[in-house]
Amino acid sequence: MADKGGKKEIACFLCQKTEHQGVLLPCRKGGEDLWVCTRCLPMLIHGG
Ligand SMILES: [Zn+2]
């Protein structure tokens, strides 16, 4: 799992905001590791 070769930029899976543009939180969906920003998180919580 230690993939130091290619540094992958993480971004919100909904709005593509990067960690440099806001706070991203790790989440899981469909067996995938995803990131979600604090703006999109409420939408997820409320089932949007
Ligand atoms: Zn977002």
Tell me the major beta sheet: 2 strands, antiparallel
Query: What structural category arises from helix and sheet content?
Result: alpha+beta
The first-to-last residue Cα distance is 32 Å
Which residues form runs of ≥5 with pLDDT under 50? none
Fraction of residues in β-strands: 25-35%
Count the beta strands.
2
Cofactors and ligands present? Answer: zinc ion
Strand order of the largest sheet: 1-2
Mean of residue pLDDT? 88
Helix and strand pattern: EEH
Number of H- or I-type helical stretches: 1
* Helicity range: 10-25%
Radius of gyration over C-alpha positions, nearest whole angstrom: 12 Å
Overall 3D form: flat
Can you tell me about this structure?
The chain is built from one helix and two strands, in the order E-E-H. It has 48 residues and is of the alpha+beta class. The protein has a two-stranded antiparallel ribbon with strand order 1-2. Zinc ion binds next to strand 2. Zinc ion is lined by residues 12, 14-15, 17, 36-37, 39-40.
Task: Please specify the SSE layout and strand pairing.
Blueprint: E1 24-29, E2 32-37, H1 41-45
Antiparallel strand pairs: 1-2
The protein binds zinc ion (ZN).
